[in-house]
Write a structure and sequence with these properties.
alpha+beta; 129 residues; five-stranded antiparallel sheet; 43% helix; 3 helices; 2 domains
């Protein structure tokens, strides 16, 4: 999976079918077959597994607070059955949220400037005409 890593925003983990694994495994009773970036993804995977149940993520993939950052989590089963292997996608959207907030603030400033300028133009037309 490391070869297919696109950037630091998306992390991928291929998880084994659930089983009775030993005490050391913390990933919803699943072993990790492969992971895109072990240094960052494994930490996020551990935090997500500690905070949320597999059923929560599986039934409504969505936005979660993982390790103090907003992340979107999706599960894609790789086979049919009760507990198939799956790909877990972790998408850090904290940066996207910051960009969206900056864009909204910028648009608000542009809108305010446009109103001031249009009222000034209308006032000038009324005084000059």
């Amino acid at each position: 999976m490391a070869r297919f890593r696109i950037n630091e925003i998306f992390e991928l983990a291929v998880l084994a079918p659930s089983s009775d694994v030993g005490e050391g495994q913390k990933y919803w009773g699943r072993e990790v077959y492969s992971i895109s970036n072990k240094h960052t993804s494994l930490i996020q995977l551990e935090q997500a597994a500690a905070q949320f149940s597999w059923e929560q993520i599986e039934s409504r993939g969505g936005v979660y607070q993982v390790g103090g950052e907003l992340s979107a989590l999706w599960i894609f089963p790789l086979a049919k059955g009760e507990s198939p292997p799956a790909i877990l996608v972790i998408n850090n959207i904290s940066d996207w949220q910051s960009l969206l907030n900056e864009f909204q603030e910028s648009m608000l400033g542009t809108l305010l400037f446009s109103f001031v300028r249009s009222f000034g133009h209308i006032g000038c037309l009324g005084a000059c005409g």
